[in-house]
Amino acid sequence: MAGLADLKRLFRRERVELDLDDIQGLVLRSRPEPYVGIHAMLHVDDATDGRELLARLPDRIPSAHDWADDLAAWTGVAISYEGLRALGLPEQSLESFPLPFRQGMAARAQQLHDYGGNAPEHWDEPLTPGNLHIALSIYAEDEAALEAAIAAAMEEVDRVEGVTLLSTHRFGADEDAKNPFGFRDSISQPTIAGSGVAPQPGQERAIAAGEFILGEDSETGKPLAVPEPVELGRNGTYVVLRKFVSRVGQFNEYVASHASDDEAQHELAAKMFGRWRSGAPLTLAPDHDDEQLGADPQRNNDFSFKNDPKGLMCPHSSHMRRLNPRDSQLTIMTDVNIHRIIRRSSTYGPKWTPEVTPTDDAKEDRGIYFIFISARAFDTIEFLQQEWINGGNFIDLGTERDPIVGIHDDTDGNFTIPADPVRHRLNGITTFNRMAGGEYLFLPSLTALRWIGAKGWEA
């Protein structure tokens, strides 16, 4: 997928069919490369103060109308169900939200396969059930811009006494934009119909706007259910936030124990991810990494799996192919387009090196906030967790799970690499990403933020 700079060049306002001036810019504005940022978690102690904060925040949040402008930093704000309740929304509005959102992520642990070390009782304190009410996320191009944006946001928070700052967590990556395991990430992004950008290389068409924006027509030809009243729901969307602590040392150790030298280790890691560390997809560079290809947004996502039906180039069970099967032949038929997501993930901690050991895992704060936007966010993440991540039936691999983000009890995981004449199956995979907390969030429109701030239900 084209990066932010490329998308800005491709944007044409005459193509726009959405209410961009009412949609938060974070929906369309992806991370720059390099990027820095901060996630701030807030708790509403007093409804009046909470609403006062929300009433002023729209002045600090760029709309999607400005997403292609030269912004050095931008802020997004999302609210949990408990946060909406703490802000005093009427029951009629609260009950109009989907059941999974009302229950919250922790209560959906069974559907999400959040058990064992990933269970809610082990989550970080700010992300334990009921604590996170408002999430502020700031993305910036450099530290100076980030500091200015943080100062502006915290000025608003400090002006009210009834909102508590639970925690902040900084994140960022250099121009390679790599995840904790050293792989370029967030490459594959959907193009949203009516957003002003045409489909990019590797995409057959733009996805219906209603898959991402409430009130617009979805892939079914009709809008999905919208929270009531219209001032609250329209032009909003939903966010899944899941914080992971990455066990990079364990991953390095596993790969080293199953590959003979550095080159073989890089190749095995690429087979598990589906791309080389540069971002080059295995289907286009099956034998060796191609850094120029990986860095080229016009080519690094321009591929299909039609010419690799047996998975000889990119294994069916690789992380990338599982989470976006594209035109793969699936044992269980699925409409891939209704499971597309807008990725806003953020990496934190030291960069990957092959020298990171399991001992380092216990000493270093390293991981990723898996964040995505979708009007079907809750159905999508629970489907992904149950079927594409922690199952293998859809690709005729039984109980085999995602080798990177799947849940593996102790060392019971396996990974199949198709080969001719005999496939290669690796055993002993453990859980390389431990869940440290998360929440289901509502990303309101700018109108909705003002409506909540003004207690619009009493107007």
TrEMBL record:
One of its GO terms (cellular component) is cytosol. InterPro entries: Dimeric_a/b-barrel, Dyp_peroxidase. Keywords: Iron, Metal-binding, Oxidoreductase, Peroxidase. Residues 283-308 are annotated as: Disordered. The keyword Iron applies. GO terms for molecular function: heme binding; metal ion binding; peroxidase activity. It comes from the Bacteria. NCBIfam families: Dyp_perox_fam. Belongs to the DyP-type peroxidase family. This is Dyp-type peroxidase. It comes from Arthrobacter echini.
